[in-house]
């Protein structure tokens, strides 16, 4: 039983490492502003997320059988129950998971910041493209309140 659990955890760990590589690629693409490649990378990333979800479901089942319960199915609980030889393997997997999860968290935060900055840049660009309302002395109001309509360079009736 422990061998199957360890094999599953190793596969799950490998998938997380691959997910980290994809997240790192996303960072480069965000910096380069390569939208088409970013779309492809997001689709590729989604496949890893689906595979991780499937492996996680299998991990939960194996962990439940190994621990003999349905709650608190953690790697720490497995380490506590395992015998000496498996305990070391599980501890190494735990340490590696902790490292890759921290790395994923950091790179995803960076990607979030880069995405927000890109959106701010787009917003600023759109705002600068909009014609500014001028303070003309002899402008006729367009509506009953005496306010002028703001004109846009985009045709909203199209």
UniProtKB/TrEMBL annotation:
UniProt-listed Pfam families: FlgN
Record-annotated membrane-spanning stretches: none
Domain of life: Bacteria
Residue ranges that the Swiss-Prot or TrEMBL entry lists as coiled coil: 87-117
Chain intervals with Basic and acidic residues compositional bias: 133-143
Record keyword Ion transport present: no
Region (Disordered): 132-158
Keywords: Bacterial flagellum biogenesis, Cell projection, Cilium, Coiled coil, Flagellum
InterPro entries: FlgN-like, FlgN-like_sf
Name of the molecule in the record: Flagellar protein FlgN
Phylogenetic placement of the source organism: Bacteria, Bacillati, Bacillota, Bacilli, Bacillales
């Amino acid at each position: 039983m422990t061998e199957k659990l360890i094999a599953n955890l190793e596969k799950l760990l490998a998938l997380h490492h691959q997910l980290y590589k994809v997240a790192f690629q996303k960072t480069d693409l965000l910096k380069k502003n390569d939208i088409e490649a970013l779309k492809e990378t997001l689709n590729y990333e989604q496949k890893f997320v689906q595979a991780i979800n499937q492996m996680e479901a299998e991990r939960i089942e194996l962990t439940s059988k190994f621990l003999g319960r349905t709650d608190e199915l953690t790697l720490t609980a497995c380490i506590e129950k395992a015998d000496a030889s498996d305990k070391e393997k599980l501890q190494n997997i735990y340490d590696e998971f902790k490292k890759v999860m921290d790395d994923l968290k950091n790179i995803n935060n960076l990607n979030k910041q880069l995405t927000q900055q890109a959106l701010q840049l787009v917003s600023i660009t759109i705002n600068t493209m909009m014609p500014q309302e001028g303070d003309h002395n002899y402008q006729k109001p367009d509506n009953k309140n005496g306010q002028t309509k703001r004109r846009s360079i985009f045709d909203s009736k199209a």
